[in-house]
């Protein structure tokens, strides 16, 4: 009876222990956690490099091996984030969860899901959201660039998302690098509202793609310009009213006048 009880109760402590260990690695600030986060960051960068160079490596014998190895890494990340999430509903509702699922599908079934391969560029956005990147910027004295870098990343991610979508749906049959260059050229001309008109997308889908690209692209471009020219602000919640954004040298909260004690990032 005791052995049966042990066999029933053993998996739960193991699962909880695994969950605690993963949370410590993903969110901790000790040396082991930072090493793990740095390793995952390097893996994400390597995956991104593979995605960029992928179209030119398909003829190589090692392509399939690397492709499935990256699929295993992404599957591990999905499972790990499901374990450390407060609940499965929270995990399932995160946009990056579904993006990673689609990316995993494009790796496992490249011929059937090549039209969704452009979503792989969202890994850039995932890398930029890493707390390790933010902490590194602050430690080396470049914390004031956080907003500018994030605005640049958002703009570039959208630009290459559009480029990937246009290439997959309109220029996929072009020879060599020419199709991608045409897709990138169209995307840049549309986002900047230059509109040379020498390359246009046919049909209703092409028109809708152009409309969405212009509206969202110009909004992100304005957001980038604002991040560059506006004064730098730090994230420090006011203990009195909760206002989270303040000037770096602020002594009082501009909303309620409460005395602030903002840490000096350069110290």
TrEMBL record:
Q: Which GO BP terms, alphabetically?
A: monoatomic ion transmembrane transport
Which InterPro entries does UniProt cross-reference here?
K_chnl_dom (IPR013099), K_chnl_volt-dep_EAG/ELK/ERG (IPR003938), VG_K_chnl (IPR028325)
Q: How does it sit in the membrane?
A: Multi-pass membrane protein
Q: Where is the signal peptide?
A: none
The Potassium channel domain sits at 157-229
What does the UniProt entry say about where the protein is found?
Membrane
Keywords in alphabetical order: Ion channel, Ion transport, Membrane, Transmembrane, Transmembrane helix, Transport
Major site of localization recorded for this protein:
membrane
The source's domain of life comes to Bacteria
The regions listed as transmembrane in this protein's record are 38-57, 63-84, 148-167, 208-225
In its keyword annotation, does this UniProt entry include Membrane?
A: yes
Q: Which Pfam families match?
A: Ion_trans_2 (PF07885)
> Which PANTHER family does this UniProt record tie to the protein?
POTASSIUM VOLTAGE-GATED CHANNEL PROTEIN SHAB, VOLTAGE-GATED POTASSIUM CHANNEL
Task: Supply the name of the protein.
Answer: Potassium channel family protein
């Amino acid at each position: 009876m005791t052995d049966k009880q042990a066999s029933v109760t053993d998996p739960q402590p193991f699962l909880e222990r695994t969950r605690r260990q993963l949370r410590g690695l993903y969110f901790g600030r000790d040396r082991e956690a930072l090493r793990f986060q740095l390793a995952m960051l390097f893996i994400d960068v390597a995956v991104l490099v593979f995605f960029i160079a992928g179209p030119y490596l398909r003829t190589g014998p090692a392509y399939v091996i690397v492709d499935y190895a990256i699929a295993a890494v992404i599957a591990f990340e999905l499972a790990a984030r499901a374990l450390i999430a407060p609940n499965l509903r929270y995990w399932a509702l995160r946009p990056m969860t579904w993006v990673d699922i689609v990316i995993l599908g494009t790796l496992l079934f490249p011929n059937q899901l090549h039209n969704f391969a452009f979503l792989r560029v969202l890994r850039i956005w995932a890398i930029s959201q890493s707390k390790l990147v933010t902490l590194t910027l602050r430690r080396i004295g470049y914390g004031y660039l956080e907003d500018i870098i994030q605005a640049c990343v958002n703009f570039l991610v959208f630009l290459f998302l559009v480029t990937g979508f246009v290439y997959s749906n309109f220029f996929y049959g072009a020879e060599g690098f020419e199709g991608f260059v045409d897709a990138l050229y169209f995307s840049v001309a549309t986002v900047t509202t230059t509109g040379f008109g020498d390359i246009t997308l046919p049909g209703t889908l092409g028109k809708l793609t152009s409309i969405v690209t212009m509206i969202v692209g110009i909004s992100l471009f304005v957001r980038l310009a604002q991040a560059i020219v506006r004064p730098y602000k730090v994230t420090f919640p006011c203990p009195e009213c909760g206002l989270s954004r303040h000037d770096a040298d602020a002594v009082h909260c501009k909303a309620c006048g409460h005395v602030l004690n903002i840490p000096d990032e350069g110290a």
